[in-house]
Design goal:
Length: about 325
């Protein structure tokens, strides 16, 4: 405070002018002002909250340290891997005998009766009994071929438990040419029978002799067509092996027909037709074997391309 100069006239005393009085500084606290109102230009406050808080404020519950949790997870995964490998090895041990049982069944039902069974015990003359005996012999082979294909299908399936089934669908071109080969094998004997009945081929072949020579052949060819269509419909991996199995036996079946033609005294043109059928099915069988080789090379190329793409991805990611 500044006090102005004061003059006293009574005592004639001059007081010093401009007295300066100072007061001690007091320490003051500025209280914070809390205001909940927000100005229009400020953004609204954002509140973060968990929707489903099932942990109730506990983080990494169940274990005091992170390392114990990781160790327990690794132990569980290792134990599950061990159980899976045990199941895979068990299935592998079960499928190993099929690799030997399948070919043995095919050999016992197809090759042994045809090669070692005397022809005189089957063929007793141009009659119905001989036709039924030959048909029964081919039915035994068909039973063995069906068992062989079932075992081959079981061996081609994946051994890993829980893995998706292995489905294999043949291409359209393969199915088309198979049908062409099968229909051609049907048409030629039927043309031979029709020409013999109409007198186009001389001397005439009796129907019972035609049934003995080519009746089982036509029946087994129809069974092969049905089996192939079933493998295509079921997308079984044995679709590539089915024609090879049946066509191999068909060659032996036609060679047996040549022997029976000599026993029946069949005309020369009949023997030539059967020889043409043998050559036709040997040609078709060679094409089927080449298809197997092509399919193996094709799948190997796909596997190589897939492994190279995976390695490139790993290099780029690394």
């Amino acid at each position: 405070m500044v006090v102005s100069k004061i003059r006293s006239t009574n005592h004639k005393i001059w007081k010093p002018a401009n007295y300066r009085l100072t007061f001690p500084r007091l320490a003051t606290k500025h209280p914070a002002i809390c205001c909940t109102n927000v100005t229009p230009w400020d953004p609204a406050p954002v509140a973060y909250a968990l929707k489903d808080d099932t942990t109730k404020g506990e983080f990494l519950s169940g274990s005091t340290t992170l390392f114990e949790t990781l160790d327990s997870d690794q132990t569980k995964s290792a134990e599950s891997l061990k159980t899976d490998t045990k199941q895979v090895t068990k299935l592998g041990y079960i499928s190993w005998p099929m690799w030997l049982m399948g070919p043995l069944v095919l050999l016992a039902t197809g090759m042994v009766p045809t090669l070692w069974l005397p022809l005189s015990s089957i063929f007793v003359g141009p009659n119905i009994a001989s036709l039924l005996s030959l048909t029964g012999l081919d039915c035994i082979f068909n039973l063995g071929a069906s068992l062989f294909l079932l075992m081959a299908d079981a061996c081609s399936r994946p051994n890993i438990v829980g893995q998706d089934q292995c489905l294999s669908q043949p291409p359209f071109g393969y199915r088309f040419w198979n049908m062409v080969a099968t229909v051609s094998g049907f048409i030629l004997p039927l043309i031979m029978l029709f020409g013999s009945q109409k007198g186009l081929f001389q001397p005439e072949l009796p129907p019972i002799s035609f049934g003995i020579l080519l009746g089982p052949y036509l029946l087994l060819l129809a069974v092969q067509m049905l089996t192939e269509m079933l493998t295509w419909h079921w997308e079984s991996p044995v679709w590539l092996v089915t024609p090879v199995v049946y066509e191999t036996y068909r060659v032996l079946q036609l060679m047996r027909g040549l022997k029976l033609g000599a026993e029946l005294g069949a005309p020369a043109w009949t023997v030539h037709v059967i020889r043409g059928l043998v050559c036709w099915w040997v040609l078709v069988l060679g094409v089927q074997v080449m298809r197997v080789a092509w399919y193996v090379g094709f799948t190997a190329q796909l596997h190589q391309d897939g492994s190279s793409d995976a390695s490139e991805v790993e290099m780029s990611s690394g």
